[in-house]
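Protein 1 of 2
SEQ + STRUCT:
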Amino acid sequence: MNRAERDAQFAQFVTERSARLLLLARHLCCDFSGAEDLTQSVLEKAYLKWGRVSQASDPYAYVRRMLINLNHDRYRRQPSREYATELLGEGRALLSFPGGQVPADEMDQVIDRLALRRAMAELTPRERSVVVLRYLEDLSEAETALELGIKVGTVKSACHRALSRLRVLAGKVREER
């Protein structure tokens, strides 16, 4: 395959799959800017290895695994979690929404999403990866185990722990309102 064909094939992959990879990264990182950086980094790495990636039986699964590995590496290198927030007196965070104010009937949905995002951020990288692959990517336990290189029993226990923690953490966040 010549360079022009390779670049066209990669461009088509990016067009078709980058939005899904970004969504996956957002759930893994629990941070929009970090997810964009992670997606960009994994696409750069995929481009450099495109000859090998394109030969895989499922290039998306290959790149998805690269994304998960890169996120785990990023998490290991990060000494502590830092979140940028703008504070308004007495420690209240300012939330900005496109278009101004959020209608009252939609506020509960916004709060639920924020509660879930905060709760997901508290999970370990493995637990978060298992939950994202099982429920966002809709993989089976066996497929998730294969994707992460762990045993099916580990997927089951990590998923159980993660869901239990999510229930508790999301409940606490909702109580804080």
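Protein 2 of 2
SEQ + STRUCT:
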Amino acid sequence: MHIPSCESVNINILTFEEARKKRAESAEYDREKWIYIPDFYSEYRYILGTAGKRSLITIGINPSTAEPDNLDNTLKSVSRIASGNGFDSFIMFNVYAQRATNPDHMDVNFNEALHRENMLAFRWVLEHGGEAPAVWAAWGTIVEKRDYLKRCLYDMVAEGNKYGAKWFMAGKPSAKGHPHHPLYLKKDSKIESFDIEAYLKNF
């Protein structure tokens, strides 16, 4: 179980470009199959996914312990639903990049630098998503855990608009309109269009 050792502002983080180029000698996964940035376990994670020509970009709140060949139940569900909706791969991305098994342990104070690098990572994902990248909003009610997460979402949507991103959801939204978390979705769940702009107005 991963519990952050401290507020993320107190650790040294690699920029997204540094993390993308760095290759850990100890990595024991197939780099032709997996996209993993940074490619070693750390207090934060920018990207985890599989390589393909048509990826479902899935947005959670924050990463947990998943790694290549060692997916948690949420990522297993993401992989199944991506495949069941005609995608040959998935990219797991998060509104905030700090790892925390329990979202209650996320940074109390917003780490501007970590968010900035996370947005650069999101831009990279969108640039590799082809025309009209498919983005699955999958953060559930956890988005209410920290006030700064709403700001992060606004930045993500603005970035997505630059690339013509198409937003989707799966399952029934919460009473407050939050898109369903992947963990408790049926295996054959289908994604459907999600009006992200209307959602943010009513957040």
